[in-house]
Amino acid sequence: MELITTRLVELQLDGAATTKDAAIDRLVEVAAAAGRSSDPAALRRDVAAREELLPTGIEGGIGIPHARSTGVAEPTVVFGRSDAGIDWGAADGPAHLVFLIAVPEGAGDEHLQILASMSRALMKSDFRDTLLKATDPQVVVDTITAAAAPEEAAPAAAPAAAAPQEEKRTMKFVGVTSCPTGIAHTYMAAEALEQAAAAAGHEITIETQGSGGFKKLDPAVIAAADGVIFANDVEVRDRARFAGKPTVQVGVKRAINDASGIVTEAVAAVEAGPAAVPVAAAVPAGGGAGGGMATKVEEGHFGIRLRGYLMTGVSYMIPFVAGGGILIALSFMLGGYQIVDVNGDVPGFIDQFSFFSLNDWAGLMFILGATAFGFLNAVLAGFIAYAIADRPGLVPGFVAGVAAGSIGAGFLGAIVGGLTGGFIARWFAQLDVPKSVRGVMPVVVVPLVATLLNGALMLTVLGKPLATVQTALTDWLAGLSGANAILLGAILGLMMAFDMGGPVNKTAYVFATLNLTQAIADNNGAALQIMAAVMAAGMVPPLALALSSTVLRPKLYTEAERENGKAAWLLGASFITEGAIPFAAADPLRVIPSIMAGSALTGALVMAFGCELRAPHGGIWVVGLISNPVMFVVAIAAGTALAAALVTALKSRNPITDEEIEAQLTHAAVA
To answer: Catalytic amino acids?
Structure first.
């Protein structure tokens, strides 16, 4: 039986369907009416389960819902066309051409082969134009049949036929995924790319550069790869390994949301042939083995690259915040808030230190924690510059960060100094110099000249204006009260929940932590309240989803989500906002607005209650360091309850039965 017949063509979806769900329903009805589906309910359920994994809309106005299903007996394509367009999850707009592809369970890789062939054909404008303009169903049938037909060996006497053979070959890709914290987004992006590559009939091997380190790809695997995909919001470590291969560079979030589109771009990049290595990625003169830019330089406007530079600095700074902050928190728990006094005379304190004194150990912890916090400006500036210029940017960046702190420019000075130091160092590193001095350029000349210029720029030109702005910001925070403070708490709460560990979340967190040590020493209540609001708001998303998925309405969630919900209790209590990511990735339109509302409420209440926090991390485990701890917990409980109620109510509008959950689990392996 043919893959598609005229009875499987619906040229007027507009009258029957205006949404994705309605369109799938209509195409399943067409399949059943044509005698191609003995169990339409099973087919509909399997296609919906696949859509839940990742939307199948691709750029160009295309929707490709597909599944393995017991509801069909043989491979089937149902075609639908919508002149008005249907939102199918693609970034560039609605889908006008929809292809429902279904193959029987146990049918091997036919489903993937059909999908890969269709995807390749959809990249051709003449194929799309033919289907958009067709008025006769037979034209649609002939066009799709030709596109999805298996390759046939070309006659030996017809060498020209070799071109299609090359076009449809299976490609091998390697990739790297990494996010600022290296916890959840890194691995979610890798999984999405692996599924999308398999769906397109290609192979991909991913190196996840996560927080626990990473295992380098085998050099032989890299050598055999046709192309490279970088999905990262911080630098790619040892990037020079991938030099010379066609490369696609995107952010982690896009890899999660549009993996199929990225694979399509990678295929096109390979077919176009290797491109010249960008100047930003080239090895500086005399760059040595480290060669290459150690940061993501994403194709696109400067703002995208700037975000990558800043997030690289933040990612290297976070371990100092966490390590130093927890040491400070422990010192307060053991020695009280007066322990800050030991920092005034460190040599004297060490001279009288006793290994048997709990208070002395508390003082030692505070000194070490404050020392770690003393590196924050330098590390932030140094690694922003490193992201721009690789190793030549480290010294001018670090020195500018310290200089900014010495004249009161704070984290604003560190950010500006890192950017200026990186660009100055990169400019010098790219100079065309005589061979006789190339060897000393990256290790002597560039650090020397860039440090002198950038340091002088910070101390004599930029420092004082930035210090004025920093002082004004500090004074504004100290003067916050009433409605202004509550509004700020709500805004910070929205930011903490928006991307759960992404750039917006990290911006709010860095805003709260960078001046924490000085705020503790000065007893700056407003700054300490901001720290409390940020941590409380960041705890709400995983706690709310744990409450919804394990207590309120467990049947609204799949078994995997219910298991994630159990873990989310501990993650939320420990201030690990990323515990909400699996839920948000599966159902962003209902989950993200709900948790943003809950976090905003919590942030506002913490500011209204005047709760103060003297530790940058720890969650409920540092409640002893929170002033007014009862109301702090009340604020978290209120936000959690609101977010859980909202997400439960929204999910209840389209509940999932136990049978559907079981079906999703059975068929979720569909690529």
So the answer is: 66, 179
For residue 185, what pLDDT band results from cuts at 50, 70 and 90? low
CA 583/CA 606 separation, integer angstroms: 26
pTM, whole model, 2 decimals? 0.49
Q: Report residue 424's pLDDT band, with 50, 70 and 90 as the boundaries.
A: very high
pLDDT over 80 (residue 477): no
Between 275 and 133, whose confidence is greater?
133
135 in a structural domain: yes
Q: Please state, in angstroms and rounded to a whole number, the distance separating the CA atoms of residues 268 and 227.
A: 10
Residues 421 and 536 in one domain: no
Residues in CB range of 187: below 8 A, 6 or more apart: 177, 208, 210
Name residues whose C-beta falls within 8 Å of residue 541's C-beta, 6 or more positions apart in sequence: 496, 497, 500, 572, 577, 579, 580, 584, 595, 598, 599, 643
> Is residue 295 a part of any domain in this protein?
no
Residue 46 has pLDDT above 80, yes or no: yes
Same domain for 175 and 133, yes or no, is: no
Residues 428 and 306 in one domain: yes
By the 8 A CB rule, do 416 and 463 touch?
no
Confidence at residue 275, expressed as pLDDT on a 0 to 100 scale: 47
Q: Does one domain contain both 346 and 460?
A: yes
Distance, CA of 646 to CA of 600 (rounded, Å) = 13
In angstroms, the Cα distances linking 460 to 79, 406, 457 are: 68, 13, 6
Whether residues 112 and 211 fall in one domain: no
Domain that holds residue 446: 302-467
Q: Does 535 lie in the same domain as 653? A: yes
Question: Which is higher by pLDDT, 568 or 516?
Answer: 568
Q: What is the dihedral of CA 579, 580, 584, 589, to 10 degrees?
A: -170
DSSP lists the bridge partners of residue 563 as none
